[in-house]
Specification:
A five-stranded antiparallel sheet has the order 2-1-8-7-6, with helices on both faces. It is of the alpha+beta class. The longest helix has 16 residues. The termini are close together. The protein has one domain: DD-peptidase/beta-lactamase superfamily (Beta-lactamase). The radius of gyration is 18 Å and the shape is globular. Helix 6 packs across helix 9. The chain is built from 14 helices and eight strands. Strand 6 and strand 7 form a beta hairpin.
């Protein structure tokens, strides 16, 4: 297990430099114009941890001022938010917590499961969660959710309106098919609200510093969220957060992690803190190559 309090700064810098070279083997996503323009050489790391005096402390490296959309890294937090709003019994009637060996946007997986989403880290589960968030319409739902997150972590998340326009203009046909099947099987009640809410919350944007602060909330007991909900979110991140690659990284690293197609990666170090990274080039599964390389290097060293 990584000990964040005892990290050697020279080792941290070496891991950062070595991990950055791995980005050359990845590809920046092209489907969404705003994301396709991301700098493939950009790399940022922020570590937020509890110091011996029980205060938040930080390490940061690289292009830490860059703002980026969370995309699928928002999924653990929308799941957490719904757990807090409805309770675990109701939420687990809506979405499962089982790993999937299929891609994150697999319609076949959903059909095999008769419309019951396998877990909230894949698109079918996240769309179902979005359909049940509080609020009259997608804009209000996104505002309330963003407000809750910022209060929870003292962060400054915001909705990237330019990116949202791109996402709407290039709406994923696979996500439409998934939402249609969810609606057909009565697992969501309003197809358009579910999809638009999902797209909006994925466009919530921030920096690695604020993402690490959000992750910190998942690493420690606190008075704001139910401990069983926090534990459940971490468990699902551990087994499902990197899609079909989750089992191999559970064996290699054994930490709750969640990736997003913007190049974002969040890693939770239980009882210690969180590591947030940003590097746009992705592997074929959709995970940040440099971000994963950094966590592996740091774990090994």
């Amino acid at each position: 297990m990584i000990n964040l309090q005892n990290i050697n700064l020279d080792t941290l810098s070496l891991c950062f430099t070595q991990a950055k070279t791995h980005a050359a083997f990845g590809t920046v996503i092209q489907r969404i114009p705003s994301l396709s323009q991301a700098d493939p050489l950009a790399f940022a790391i922020h570590i937020c941890y509890q110091s011996p005096s029980n205060l938040q402390s930080h390490y940061c490296l690289g292009d830490t001022n860059i703002q980026f959309p969370l995309m699928s890294v928002i999924k653990p937090f929308s799941f957490l938010y719904l757990l807090e709003c409805l309770g675990s019994e109701k939420v687990l009637n809506l979405v499962g917590i089982e790993p999937s060996s299929s891609p994150f946007n697999s319609l076949q997986q959903l059909q095999d499961d008769h419309g019951y989403p396998r877990n909230p880290m894949i698109n079918s589960g996240a769309i179902t969660v979005a359909d049940n968030l509080p609020g009259e319409n997608p804009t209000i739902r996104t505002h309330l959710f963003c407000q809750w997150l910022n209060k929870l972590a003292h962060s400054q998340l915001f909705l990237d309106e330019t990116l949202l326009a791109d996402v709407r203009a290039t709406r994923s046909q696979i996500n439409i098919a998934i939402a249609q099947y969810l609606y057909y099987t009565q697992h969501i009640t309003n197809l358009e609200i579910a999809l638009d809410t999902y797209e909006q919350i994925c466009c919530l944007s921030t920096t690695v510093q604020d993402l690490a602060k959000l992750g910190y909330v998942l690493s420690h007991h606190n008075n704001y969220i139910h401990p069983q909900h926090r534990q459940l979110v971490n468990s699902v991140m551990l087994t499902c957060g990197l899609y079909e690659d989750s089992p191999q990284y559970t064996a290699k690293i054994g930490l709750p992690m969640k990736s997003g197609i913007s190049g974002t990666l969040l890693t939770i170090i239980p009882h210690q803190g969180a590591i947030a990274s940003y590097s746009p080039p992705l592997d074929p599964t959709g995970n940040s190559i440099a971000g994963l390389a950094f966590i592996q290097l740091l774990t090994n060293k």
